[in-house]
């Protein structure tokens, strides 16, 4: 028996996919998609089936290895990605400043809205986790200047993780823990973080691994803490899969369905409005990027 929402067997994965499709149907949203090689997919089930999943336990295991090896190799290879901001942002280095500026305002609002985080901020006790951190752009540009006392960075590529302390700077790096691990395996201690930041990396996780990862990150929050997910969304289809680095961009509603599956909810403010802010100053060629504040249900 698994104590995570999605048990590690093919039937549970298949059931998840059916629930996701039901969710999208109820929201009058499409669940079809496409990939970068021009293939069209009728639904989410076809996406995962064509990637070798949902057949039986054994093929699921080898497909999982294949799925994660592809993105790992992509990010680990210097010819594909330089260990720089430009490398992290796929040639959009110039957007980093705008991105971090909007994130800072969002983070400030979230901390002000949480009495527990405000108190810990006052006591210099805030802790954060940057997921899919690359060289630590968010830790260096947002968390450390913000006064986080502890920053954990989780990243699958050893090459990028090794570049992180130098990029962050020797002194600030003493507040950081560099954890070289896939998010699909990362399992932090409960009650550890005020802020968990997941930016531009959920596309590399399968649906079931993403749900279980979010569930574990929910448990890792301190009281009053928040997970922020900031990522690309596609708007006409439910998903758009890029075969180059093995990623899948999902629609906003698809992402919401996964958040609910993890037993989490979107944070609401005093006026009961959901704390979701869309980055509104990126050029049109960039997918729409929401910042979604997520927390546990209790
Ligand atoms: C587009 S970059 C974004 C980096 C960083 N989040 C930022 O905003 O600057 C995607 C990062 O996700 C990492 N990544 C991809 N798959 C991952 C996985 N399964 N677990 C952890 N990190 C992963 C890549 O190695 C890369 O560093």
From TrEMBL:
Q: Name one GO biological process term.
A: methylation
| Lineage top rank: taxon | Eukaryota
Task: Provide the catalytic activity annotation.
Answer: N-terminal L-seryl-L-prolyl-L-lysyl-[protein] + 3 S-adenosyl-L-methionine = N-terminal N,N,N-trimethyl-L-seryl-L-prolyl-L-lysyl-[protein] + 3 S-adenosyl-L-homocysteine + 3 H(+); N-terminal L-alanyl-L-prolyl-L-lysyl-[protein] + 3 S-adenosyl-L-methionine = N-terminal N,N,N-trimethyl-L-alanyl-L-prolyl-L-lysyl-[protein] + 3 S-adenosyl-L-homocysteine + 3 H(+); N-terminal L-prolyl-L-prolyl-L-lysyl-[protein] + 2 S-adenosyl-L-methionine = N-terminal N,N-dimethyl-L-prolyl-L-prolyl-L-lysyl-[protein] + 2 S-adenosyl-L-homocysteine + 2 H(+)
Identify the keywords attached in UniProt to this record, alphabetized.
Methyltransferase, S-adenosyl-L-methionine, Transferase
Cite the binding residues for S-adenosyl-L-methionine.
Answer: 132, 137, 183-184, 199
Q: What is its EC number?
A: 2.1.1.244
In the record, the note on similarity to other proteins reads:
Belongs to the methyltransferase superfamily. NTM1 family.
Protein's name in the database: Alpha N-terminal protein methyltransferase 1
